[in-house]
Amino acid sequence: MNTLVEIKNLSVSYFTYAGEVQSVRDISFSIEKGKTTALVGESGCGKSVTSKSLMGLIEKPGVIKEGSQIIYNGKNILDFNPKEWNAFRGKECSMIFQDALVSLNPTMMVGKQIMENLENHNEEGLSKGELRKKAKEMLDMVGIPDAESCLNKYPHELSGGMRQRVMIATALITHPTLLIADEPTTALDVTIQAQILELMKDLQKKLGMAIIMITHDLGVVADICDDIVVMYAGKIVEKGSNEDIFYHPRHPYTWALMNSVPRLDLDSKEELVTIEGTIPDMIHPPKGCAFCSRCPYAMNICAEQTPEVLDLGNGHEVSCWLTDPRADVSGVPFQTGGVDHE
Amino acid sequence: MSNRPVELEVKHLCKYYNAGRKRLLKAVDDVSFDIYKGETLGIVGESGCGKTTCGKTCIGMLEKTGGEVKFQGKDVHTLSKKERFDFSGKVQMIFQDPYASLDPHQKVYDIVAEGIRIHKLAKDKAEEEHMVLELLDMVGLNAEHAMRNVHEFSGGQRQRIGIARALAVDPEFLFCDEPISALDVSIQAQIINLLMKLQKEKHLTMLFIAHDLSMVKHISDRIGVMYLGNMVELSGSSDLYRKPLHPYTQALLSAVPIADPKASRERKKIMLTGDVPSPVNPPAGCRFSGRCKYCMSQCFDLKPELKEVEAGHYVACHLYDEK
User: Fold this and answer.
1) CA A237 to CA A320: how far, in whole Å?
2) Which residue of B has its CA nearest to A194?
3) Interval B89-113: pLDDT, tens
4) Residues paired with A213 in a beta bridge
5) What is the model's pTM?
6) Domains of chain B from N-terminus onward
7) Which among B190, B213, B255 has CB closest to A194?
8) How many CB atoms are closer than 10 A to CB B275?
9) Which residues pair with A75 in a beta bridge?
10) ipTM reported for the complex, 2 dp
């Protein structure tokens, strides 16, 4: 195991006028070097908040609670002072966002924006010309035709796919060890999405960075991710390798999520699996399992007590009462506890 | 298929916008298709391909520039006031954004009842109430929701209200413009199941527009693929996915990620290079010519017609010209 970042007992709350919104509640997972980890879940499940904590971007009224730890290179980054954060952000860890048009500065030329990140972390003391050369190389690398003239363009002159490429170039120019991609392809058309995903895979091979992919598109997850973390209402309900989650889901939420999207390559007009109801109120999160109110297999205990995390081996972990040997699992369409059946 | 009665007949429909400086933006350019009674026709394509404009022009929400649209034999764009009124009782729509398409000042009850009142479908207040509650029940909401304001509902529930409003006048034709793209994955499945159930019960004809190809495939009987204002392929939905003929359709389908790691790894993707050209100055000849890897010399000059290549499978591509 080659762990790059270890997140331990992370809890984040937002103190609003309505009360304390517990966005992330005591989650732990780790990110491997050079691998792609997906954070999957519905809107409001806390996946973006988790990634923001990694970048030190939780602002008031948000608070990272006592006891939370994010270990990077043996250090807890949550203890960083502003200076250390500035050295970390953009250099060790970069982020790309969903909407490239609002993320890029509309009044600044593309070349300057890319160079800006490098200038801030310019330990080698490179000259302006050298920086520019590096920026051009990076634009070439992300597949922008005629990179030289692109340096002198403004973001509005580029198409959506090209802007996303520019943003990736800006994030990767410092060769970070971790890239956080927050729904990077959601706003794009499928053919452009395919191009960007191919590019990200390709760059990961060349530069060797780890990627945290935040998305709700399971197709994207299947395509590029090695590990998957499934979040629901601020908690991790299941995590494991790509194959574990897709072929041996153990949590009813994961299972329903996998079966709620029709498959393009299969011919089926059967009714889709739905998850009835809506996500719980995060100001008063349920006492027991958060999914309990929407779970068709919920038992009495589910509403009372939070299920323990069960380790199924090889990093596949699930937290659900159905895995308990005493649970009645007749009528549950997926396997619950024990070892994976083929 | 062809012996079924045609509900909506679209012939050489054009919709141009003035793009300034004497240029025209050809949003929909010479599109022809039929929708048979009781079927669901899906239209897919990337953003800016003209699918929404096409749908809106088809039901008369937008003025046409050229061509003809006939609903049950009557031209949609030249209806008299009386005919227009009847038309609105037969054709209803569901919109993409459930937040913008419902009046925030009205109670759910009034939103749903408005159509009933306009078309005088209820004899008295009691019958109206009965109808509204039945509609709410049909879309999975209950009586308690009727007196609430719209802002109290989540996106999925709002979309249900939108569906109840559309069904209030007991329409025959439903135009769904991206009804699920603003919703979460688990909610999307709920809405799709609901629409499919309602269609079966009420024998609705549907025009379903979306960019999520797997959802469109799931709900549609036939699918049309649009690219830059043109219909490039039209066929039965499983046929289209099993055997796409147009190079653009092939690339589009191969780009859709599949939620299965093994299948996803084994699949060959066709990568398109470049972006969609501007509809203000589209390529002459085939609109896809600049990005197509099978492009031949005539593709640059001669625009291919939509032709029936196999039974019920239409494609507009010179690759399938008779030699």
Assistant:
1) 7
2) B255
3) 999 999 888 888 898 888 999 999 9
4) A38, A181
5) 0.85
6) 6-320 (3.40.50.300)
7) B255
8) 18
9) A72
10) 0.80
